[in-house]
Specification:
It contains 5 helices and no strands. It is mainly alpha-helical. It has one domain. The longest helix has 19 residues. It is elongated.
């Protein structure tokens, strides 16, 4: 399923190179989002289009999952053990509390 992304700004060559170094593009995007997505909740790479179709598809799939709380929970339930799931959800809840606290 190819989505039209021509309205998005193109990623620079430098961004594409950095993304390839940081993200495990060879892994399943759902599995990455489930296991590591909690560390990327401010994910914005899906707001660009990449010249490599495989990279573009991977980044947009991950972005769609990470930015949708229901989709993220669904893939976490699918790919994580119950213990891992509870730990990730607790981390997310604790992180939300810290961000919402005004001192």
């Amino acid at each position: 399923m190819t989505e039209q992304r021509s309205h998005l700004p193109p990623a620079s060559a430098e961004m594409e190179n950095n993304v390839r170094e940081v993200f495990p593009i060879g892994t399943d995007p759902e599995e990455f989002a489930a296991k590591d997505g909690v560390g990327w909740l401010e994910f914005t790479f899906h707001e660009y289009r990449f010249s490599d179709p495989e990279l573009d598809s991977w980044m947009h799939t991950v972005g769609k999952i990470i930015t949708d709380p229901k989709a993220l929970e669904e893939v976490q339930r699918k790919h994580l053990s119950e213990e891992e799931f509870r730990a990730v959800r607790k981390y997310m809840e604790d992180d939300d509390l810290e961000e919402d606290t005004d001192f």
